[in-house]
Write a structure and sequence with these properties.
Order of helices and strands: HHHHHHHHHHHHHHEE
Oligomer: single chain
Number of helices: 14
Structural class: mainly alpha
Helix content: 55-70%
Number of strands: 2
Strand content: under 5%
Number of domains: 2
Mean pLDDT: 77
Shape: elongated
Length: 262
């Protein structure tokens, strides 16, 4: 028997066994739900053809890898479990390598949780509503300190600030142009899980701030500027969140220099 043929046959068997082992591990993760169930179920609502786009899958890897204050390995397992169920020709080794590449990448993913919610809600609104009811239960309001008391009023502040139907309609239009929904925006505005002086951590959760403006974002700056000037915000904290929610789409922040893009 040809030795080179034996070597090739041996490696073929090893690779086959390795693939079987990897598949068995993933099947175990799925059976035991060894993943972030909230994010996994959100991704499950996205149609399979969306995952046929390599850029979408790459950005999804970045979304999971860059989750703030999260367990890196849990996010990787969640990402792999999603692809295992959504990608027809799934390659665990390649997917793992793609995910791990985000660890020291200079790029930022174009996906954030708000955009994923918008995609899911656009395709399966009823399922998305059920997901939101199950996984995004509002936390009880805290009133033990002056800081938490102010945070607990954010929901009321939002209602009073945008009580005008016309103003709310304009806001809804602006938000939808970012690929998000007004419900997503409101959830971000009234989130009480961050203290008043934790705006940077709030931004990590709800925004994807890149070193360049979003070229796909067709929001008219003058409309945003006019709304900002004519809206009487009920609290300074709500105003700060509102500005940060949109402003990074127009400005590039590099040290002390700020470049404006129309």
């Amino acid at each position: 028997m040809n030795p080179s043929w034996e070597i090739r046959a041996y490696y073929h068997q090893v690779n086959h066994l390795k693939k079987q082992t990897l598949n068995a591990v993933l099947e175990y993760f799925l059976a035991t739900k060894s993943y972030d169930e909230r994010l996994h179920e959100l991704c499950m609502m996205i149609r399979s053809d969306w995952f046929c786009n390599n850029q979408n899958v790459w950005n999804l890897a970045g979304f999971f890898a860059r989750q703030p204050h999260s367990d890196w390995y849990l996010m990787r397992k969640t990402y792999l479990c999603v692809l295992k169920q959504k990608v027809e020709r799934f390659n665990k080794e390649f997917a793992t390598k793609e995910f791990d590449g985000w660890f020291d990448s200079k790029y930022n993913p174009s996906l954030n949780e708000g955009k994923l919610k918008g995609i899911a809600a656009g395709w399966y609104s009823a399922a998305y509503k059920q997901w939101k009811d199950e996984y995004e239960v509002k936390e009880p309001r805290k009133t033990t300190t002056s800081k938490t008391f102010e945070l607990s009023t954010l929901d009321q502040d939002f209602e009073l600030t945008f009580k005008s139907e016309r103003k709310l309609a304009t806001l809804t239009q602006l938000v939808e142009l970012t690929g998000r929904t007004i419900d997503d925006m409101r959830s971000a505005m009234v989130d009480t899980s961050f203290e008043i002086d934790e705006l940077e951590y709030w931004a990590e959760k709800y925004l994807v701030i890149e070193n360049k403006p979003n070229r796909d974002f067709d929001l008219n700056f003058s409309t945003f500027e006019k709304m900002l000037k004519t809206t009487n915000f009920e609290s300074l904290h709500l105003l700060k969140r509102f500005v940060l929610y949109f402003i990074h789409e127009f400005y590039v922040f590099e040290g002390s220099d700020i470049t404006y893009y129309k």
